[in-house]
Automatic annotation (TrEMBL):
This is Transposase. Transmembrane segments: none annotated. One of its GO terms (molecular function) is transposase activity. Residues 19-73 form the Transposase IS110-like N-terminal domain. One of its GO terms (biological process) is DNA transposition.
Length: 84
């Protein structure tokens, strides 16, 4: 394994959720799993708009609260959209 992959793996703990997003032009689909790969909620379909990304954040916060998780890992492209 390379250093970058090892670094990413080291960031995942039992209090972490990982979000994978299938990116599309108009609507995205997000899935969330725990550190063992167990799906924690049904997939979320959300619009490629500011309101859609707000919906994603609300969804993530509710899942994290329900499952007592403290950390979330998003892909780089998604982080840019959420926090720009």
């Amino acid at each position: 394994m390379n250093f970058k992959l090892n670094h990413q793996i080291d960031q995942i703990h039992s209090d972490t959720v990982i979000v994978g997003i299938d990116i599309a032009k108009h609507n995205h689909i997000a899935r969330v799993v725990d550190d063992r790969g167990k799906e924690l909620a049904k997939p979320l379909v959300f619009a490629n708009t500011q309101q859609g990304f707000q919906q994603l954040l609300f969804w993530m916060k509710s899942i994290m609260k329900k499952h007592a998780k403290q950390q979330v890992l998003f892909g780089a492209a998604c982080r840019q959209s959420l926090f720009s």
